[in-house]
Amino acid sequence: MKKIVFILFLFLTSGKMIYSQNINIGTRLGGFITGWENTGSFMTLQSRSTRMWSYNIYGRQEILDNLYLGMDLGYSRSTAELNVIEPERNIARGNGPTLGLWSIGPTIRKDFPLSNGKLGFHTSLSIPLNYTSFRNYEYSGSEFRTVVRVGDNQPITDIYVYGEDRIQRRFSVFVRPEVGVFYNVNARGRISFDLLWGINSGGPLVTRDFNEIIYEGETLNNNLHKFNGQYFAFTIGYEYKLFK
User: Is the pLDDT of residue 26 over 90?
Assistant: First the structure.
């Protein structure tokens, strides 16, 4: 983490010496939407992403009028829940570990200010290198013994799962187009509202392979859940002009 921040600092300071133009830094915070692909013969058991938020910091340098090059460092996290989906039995959602995605990469942005100079919109494109933070896990059968029904608060005792969580791609490259609107609060600061689309350029990042599920006395096999990491994000941010 310290090395990444140091690289970002070097980029900003070297850019100032080479180009002697505008240097901006900023931060953004928001949520995102992502999901799992659940396949197999037992759709009562599903993986879902919940409690999703993202955060990033960035630096950009103006190389032409309203055209910026920069570097972006981000972190997105979600909870990879394993759920029993049975509305008629009012079973509560299950539990799951945290799935994190660190990213760093170059970005290019174009601003389109409106005539009043305060408002405008921008588009950008990033190609981040991602690191998936997630631990492999073995399911030994009784993960749902501590999950209770909503209606009667009784534990679930008739489902057993056997299988594994596995990281398939610790490192990945995404393509991330963005669009947003901004408001210049003064000569140096601006706030922005952005929409981001993270597109996975390869295969799934994480899989859950259940080789055996025992449910109400019946044994089911070959159920696979896949997480490819693609997302839609919505953020609010603040940007400050360091050098001019």
Answer: yes
